[in-house]
Structure formats: C-alpha cells, structure tokens
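Lab channel / #folding
Pinned by the channel admin:
"Please post every new chain as: sequence first, then the structure tokens as a reply. Keep commentary short and put observations after the output so the thread stays searchable."

First post following the new format, from NK:
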Amino acid sequence: MIEAAVFDFGGVISASTMPLVLKATVAELKLPWPAFVAGFAKHRLLYDQGVITLSEMYDRILADAGLELDAATKARLCADDTASWLSRNEATLEWMQSLKARGLKIGILTNMAPAFAPLFRRHFADYVALADAMVVSGEVNLVKPMPEIYELLRERIALEAHELCFIDDLEINCAAARECGWQAICFKDNSQAADDLERMLK
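Reply from TO:
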C-alpha cells in the first residue's frame, strides 16, 4: 500500500522541464540551440550534483560547441537559466495539498544545484512546507538516477520502499525508483499523473 507520494521538481513542481527561457536568448544571440541541448545532457548532472558551478557548466557547453562569449553575455545565460526554473505548477501544489489532507506523506526528491536550493526554498516555500522529507541532490552530492539518492529519501521519510510512489517527468528516474523497489509514475501532465496514482491507491 502506498503511504507517500514523492515529487520531482523540474517539470512537476516547476512548470519548466529544462531552461527553455534560455532558448529565446540563444536565438537572439544566433547561437546553435542543439549545442546547448547536448551540453545540458552532458554536463547538467555535474552541476546538479554540486561538482561544478553554473558558470563552469556553461564554460563547458560553450567549449564543446567551439563558441566564445564575453563575460556579460555568459552571465546573462546563467541568469536566464536560473529564472527559467521559477515557473510554478500550481496544479501540483493543489494535488500535494489534497494528498496530504488524505493522510499520505509527501516527499520531494530533486536534482538541483546547491546554489539554486535557497531560491527554491523561498520561491516554492508552500510546496516545501508540505514535505515530510526532502533530498536535494547538490546538498548530498548524489543525483538521480543513482540508487543511493532514493535510499536516502526513503530513510528520511521512514517508510519501506514499496510504500513510496515517485512522480518524475523522466522515465530514466522512474525506472531507477522501480529498481529500488518503489512504485513510480512518469509525469506527462497533472491529470494523467493523478489518475495513475489513484489507480495505485485503490
């Protein structure tokens, strides 16, 4: 029986699934967007793990693409990246509140750089307040889909693995949760994910 719903941040709590606000800036600068997408795939987890800074991540992305930018332009990319994650999915907040009212525990398990975590706690304070346990990757130097990060959340929420349902927009992270003995739902939209969870709760 599921006793807790554990929520991802990007694409679930935040409406952003990647720094898409940046896309307009990249287009304005006439830079190749596919190079940034490839760079996010290659370097973003190191940033989320707290191994490199956001500025260092963009240094690597730009170097891989053979691009050179002045310091002010690179700072603009970093600022746009940070701002892109601040769009709130209010439907997820309402869903979390309703599940909490029904007696389920709430968890938050997110890949997130330590530099962004204070902004997350301020801008999404009402989401965070609902959490019985939370793990932020950059604060523990682990990232999804490492099994250790799932086990850390399980320990903090004090439940057995089969009692947890993880809700994430990436199937690779859901698959990793299942390998750890959790239930998991790959989030496409709030209606689909809520329907999937209700079927599991019956």
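NK: The mean pLDDT is 96.
TO: also worth noting, The first strand starts at residue 4 and ends at 7.
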